[in-house]
Amino acid sequence: MRRTSEERRDEGMTLVELLVSMGIFSILMVITTAIMIDMMYASRENLGRVNATEEARLGLSQIDRQVRSGNVILDPALETYTDSGVDPYYSLRIYTQEGDSPKCAQWRVIDENDDGFGNLEYRYWSPNYPTDPAVSDWAVVAHNVIVPAFVAPDSNDSSTWPPFWKDPSTVTSALGSTPAQNVRITLKLLTPEMRKGSKPVSISSVVTGRNTVLGYSESSCSVIPAP
How many CB atoms neighbour CB 179 within 10 A? Predict the structure, then answer.
């Protein structure tokens, strides 16, 4: 006797059909989960890049204001570990009139844990130091700054640019007589939220001290408090 179509519909799925359906469903779940995980990591990395960019721009903007109001900008290549706690090109000193208040400002990128990452820090003191002994504490402006192994800077190779550098390609004939008249600031950040192997956030700018053409003595801010 033949079964009616209604009877066949009541039989349900065979074992093979069930296994095929479960296999397809499992594959779809794996794909969906992978997409969701990738989106989560991408969102986290984007947030990390945004935070890194904001920190780098904050640090750069503060340095920019001080340099533009600077009377004397000391050459980062001549900085010493004794004076800054870091190697040459990783410290920048400025005699600045930012806010109409003359002061000595010092910036540095320091890797305290020797893991290739450090902080952008800033402090200031009176131009009359040590007669006026007040010195501010180091303040962290940006975290997770990459501290690369030193190589000789090359104007044509941005990968060699240190945090602070008197880039000879930026010296103009009108302002070239003043040491460190133009200073290149390069900050590269890689936050924990960003994936390993991700390209770091990099911000580089050349800033110019307008007042350095007035011939202030380079001995200004030459007496440096212990770092």
Answer: 14
**Could you tell me where the DSSP H helices lie in 120-215?**
none
Amino acid at 158: S
Q: Which amino acid is at 24?
A: I
**Within 13 Å, how many C-alpha atoms sit on residue 23's CB side?**
6
Instruction: Find out whether 98 and 124 touch, Cβ atoms under 8 Å.
Output: no
Convert the pLDDT of each residue in 82-134 to its tens digit: 999 999 999 999 998 887 788 999 999 999 888 888 999 999 999 999 999 99
Domain ranges of the chain: 28-214
SS (HEC) of the chain = CCCCHHHHHCCCCCHHHHHHHHHHHHHHHHHHHHHHHHHHHHHHHHHHHHHHHHHHHHHHHHHHHHHHCEEEECCHHHCCHHHHCCCCCCEEEEEECHHHCCEEEEEEEECCCCCCEEEEEEEEECCCCCCCCCECCCEEEEEEEECCCCCCCECCEHHHCCCEECCHHHCCCCCCCCCCCEEEEEEEECCCCCCCCCCCEEEEEEEECHHHHHCCCCCCCCCCCCC
Locus of tokens 């989560």 = 40
What angle (nearest 5°) sits at the alpha carbon of residue 87, between those of residues 227 and 132?
Answer: 25
pTM (predicted TM-score): 0.78
